[in-house]
Amino acid sequence: MTATAAAIRQPESPQYLRLAIVTAMTLGLLYAAFNLYLIAQPLFGALLLALAVGFAIVFGANRFYNSRFIFPGVATVMLFVAFPVLYTIYLGFTNYSSFNLLTHERATEILLARGSVDAATEQPFAVAPDGDGYRIWLPESGLLSEVVYLTDDLEEAMLAPAAEPEGLLAARDAIKLRAGLQTLSLTTPEGVVIQNSGLRTFASLTPEFRRIDANTLERTADGSRLTADWSTGFFVTEAGEKVPPGWRVNIGWQNFERVFQSKGIRAPMVEIFIWTVVFAGLSVLFTFAIGLTLAVILQWPHLRFKPLYRILLILPYAVPSFISILVFRGLFNQNFGEINLILEALFGVRPEWFTNGNLARTMILIVNTWLGYPYMMLLAMGFLQAVPEDHKKAAALEGASALRVFFTITLPQILPPFLPLLIASFAFNFNNMVLVLLLTRGLPDITGTVLPAGETDILASFTYRIAFGFSSSEFGLAGAITLLIFLVVAIISYANFVAMRRAADRRSAR
Amino acid sequence: MIVERPRDLMVKKTLAHGFMILFLALIMFPFLMIISISFREGNFTIGDLIPRDPTLEHWYLAFGLDYTRADGTVISPPYPVLLWMWNSIKLGLLAAVGVLSISTISAYAFSRIRFRGRAGLLDGLFIVQMFPTTLALIALYAIFDSLGEVSPSLGIDSHLAVVLVYWSGVVLHIWTLKGYFDGIDTALDKAAAIDGASPWQTFRMIFLPLAVPMMAVVFVLVFIGAINDYPIASVLIRSENQMTLAVGSRLYLNEFKYLWGDFAAAAILSGLPITLVFLIAQRYLVSGLSEGSVKG
Q: Over the range B86-96, which residues count as b (16 or more CB within 10 Å of their CB) and which as e?
């Protein structure tokens, strides 16, 4: 069918217009790819290159007409889901962290740019406006520079003996030109290069290191050598001391060894893993139980005000979750929270919701049940309608109680179609880091750990805190732990896949 | 229904209503509290459900206006709530438009166009969909950190970067829309093909108009999802003026600067429109939710 359709297809827009757009977009992508290559990110560059080539082929050649429909979707998923997932796994094998953040080139550049001030040449300066630009006046040596413009770009100028210019700027106004001054280097008549060395001074700066080759730097002061150590990603002195900043290198399985061998990481990780499963499991159980109960009550034909109840009951689902979670964070506050006020007035207790581990976990489950039951209720209401009324009637005529009817007739009929949704809900809660990050940030901390690990942390929020926490950013280690999460997620998604297939088969068999 | 004795029925009805009212009281407690708190004086004061000296201070601040207290002190808004709200709405709309375009056309292709490897691609997408983007945050941070060196408009702190990541959430919606397209009679596109329509024309003239209700569902779902996102935006956005509501609101309840009253007003102001959108759309959302997720 599609072949004939393609054959008799009329060109909708002039061919040359399409080709022009495709060419322009391809060139744009290629330009970006080239730039990525230039800043030493060849991997991302190659990816964009592949995207550009794929785009040009699919949209340029008529043969691939059918693929055009699928290209945007597949490209998006590849670029922003599949690739990041793989790249995260790759990062798990590197030492990418706040200490090893840069590329080797950038780390070398930063070391080479470091300099020490030569005190003998240090002297004050003043700035005199001259037309569009400025001249720098050095009163101690009586030198005046050529006209300079003090932009952010590197600028060089010669100094020559002259008389003091008129209209020197006040120190306060000169400081405003700081950014431009810092990129300026002046050459004295003797050939000494001096640079801005402080708020009010110029001096000659001697670079701390000199480049010998890509892997060796020499300290100018004493001639000692720094060598690049590609196993740790740092330059090291002859004594073996690391000189930051470091760069990113592959370290093989070291992150995984740290996870499995260091007791300070392994013990909390096991605890967090167990809590993650318990949290996800209990969340599904509670929301399902409450949602189903409410749905059954709402289905009862004798109940009045149903629409009102229904709309009020789904309110927790309608309010943006980040707002409700933060509201609960405030309500549960130990000192000013309204929940503790009421509990104190009624029972004289002030539970420590945020510092006691078990109470914090209870609180998280309460909030998550509050957030999640309406979704289950809405689904259950849909599925309950599909249960034939006469089955229930027959059972009731036989003398079965309402509870018995529910557990022997209704529940077995709605569980199979519900199962994939329950598994999906489990998977969602397994990675429900919005709740943890906004409510507790994983606190209270588990004692005696190497990394920040909290009693309410789930695996996903644990890795988030390792990577983007306040103390340090260990992207590599977080990547390694993410790989472990991926394995669990893969198992869950396979289970879901099977459950979906079964549900679909059952439906088509009916 | 089976005939029941009137007295039993009465008891049951009372029980059911009693349970519902009790449960609702528990559920509605946070909403009532937050409304009351937004009219209370100060950020720490403790009081009754109906505030004794109601004040509009927190509401002035939420709307970005200075508030002059009775004693003459002028309070300035702590955070740009309206700007955050605009950021959130902007990101939500851009995400929804992008995801909707990509997923509609992909769903049509998966439902109607024959091409090699279709079944494999579908299964692949199903597996990929189970890996939430939030788990690949480290890679996303590294990617956009590098892209920022090519052009700051694509780097950390740019809205474009966040929108691109939101677009990656298309897979779920491809499935929803594919289920919908699968339900459309194939006689329709055969007729179109006989009349000489290209697959693109069939899509634009026949499928697109038919899918409008379902597309509305997807649009609202993506919009709400983007506004609710915290992890992605918190990693990719750093400066206060670029923040979304979800990232910014967290600043109110900082241990060192606890602005409970100001937060309450800002939360109601920003939560109300989104809640209304959801309540209006919810009837369609429910059918969309169960259909999309069950149809394999």
A: ebbbebbbbbb
Q: Which phi-psi region, left, alpha or beta, contains residue A28 (left: φ > 0; alpha: ψ -120 to 50)?
A: alpha
CA distances from A380 to A180, A375, A424, A441, A499 (A): 67, 9, 15, 32, 18
Residues in A touching B294 (Cβ below 8 Å): 417, 420-421, 500, 503
pLDDT digit string, tens, across residues A423-479: 888 888 988 989 999 998 887 888 777 777 888 999 889 888 888 876 678 888 888
With contacts defined as CB-CB under 8 Å, which chain B residues touch A331?
A: 30, 33
Could B138 and A478 be called an inter-chain contact, meaning their C-beta atoms sit closer than 8 Å? yes
In angstroms, the CA B167 to CA B96 distance is 8
Backbone angles phi, psi at B95, to 5 degrees: -65, -45
**Residue among A91, A297, A433 minimizing CB distance to B134:** A433
| A452 vs B254: CA distance, rounded Å | 19
Asked whether the beta carbons of residue B289 and residue A379 sit closer than 8 angstroms, the reply is: yes
Which residue would you say has higher pLDDT here, B3 or B88?
A: B88
Which of B265, B212, B247, B210 shows the shortest CA–CA distance to B63? B265
Residue of B nearest to A72 (CA): B102
Q: What is the rounded radius of gyration, in angstroms, for the C-alpha atoms of chain A?
A: 34
Tokens linked to A483: 């790989």
Identity of the residue in A70, A324, A468 whose CB atom sits nearest the CB atom of B30? A324
* Min Cα–Cα distance to chain B from A453, Å: 17
Output the CA–CA distances (angstroms, integers) from residue A159 to A115, A170, B247, in the order listed.
Answer: 22, 21, 52
Q: What would the pLDDT profile of A64-93 be if each residue is shown by its tens digit?
A: 787 888 888 888 888 888 888 888 888 888
State which of A187-196, A261-270, A336-345, B230-239 shows the largest mean pLDDT. Answer: B230-239
Yes or no, beta carbons of A70 and B197 under 8 Å apart? no
- Contact indicator for B130, A496 with CB cutoff of 8 Å: yes
Q: Quick one: tokens of B103?
A: 């997923």
φ, ψ of residue A441 to 5 degrees: the values are 55, 20
Of B5, B81, B97, B135, which to mutate for an interface test with A (greatest number of A Cβ within 10 Å)?
B135
- Residue type present at position B185: D
* C-alpha closest to that of A86 among A478, A462, A486: A486
**From CA A420, how far away is CA A505, in angstroms rounded?**
13
Strand (E) or helix (H) holding A457: none
Q: What is the pLDDT of residues A1-32, one digit of tens each?
A: 344 444 444 445 567 787 888 888 888 888 88
Contact B270 A323 (CB under 8 A): yes
Q: Which residue in chain B is spatially nearest to A91 when comparing CA positions? A: B139
Instruction: For chain B, say whether A83 makes contact (Cβ under 8 Å).
Output: yes
Residue whose C-alpha is closest to residue A411's, from A425, A429, A427, A395: A395
Helical (H) or strand (E) element with B118? helix B118-129
Which tokens in the block code for residue A366? 């309460």
Q: Which of A302, A320, A497 sits opposite B126 (nearest CB)?
A: A497
What are the structural domains, with CATH classification, of chain A? 12-91 (1.20.58.370), 104-111+209-247 (no CATH), 115-207 (2.40.430.10), 263-509 (1.10.3720.10)
Q: What is residue A62's predicted lDDT score, i.e. its pLDDT?
A: 78
Give the list of residues 6+ apart from residue B156 with CB closer than 8 angstroms, or none: B141, B144, B145, B148, B236, B237, B238
Neighbours of A488 (CB within 10 A): 16
Q: Are B267 and A326 in contact (CB < 8 Å)?
A: yes
- Which residue did the predictor score with more confidence, A342 or A174? A342
Q: How many helices (H) and strands (E) does chain B have?
A: 14, 2
- Return the closest-CA partner of residue A464 out of A95, A88, A78, A82: A88
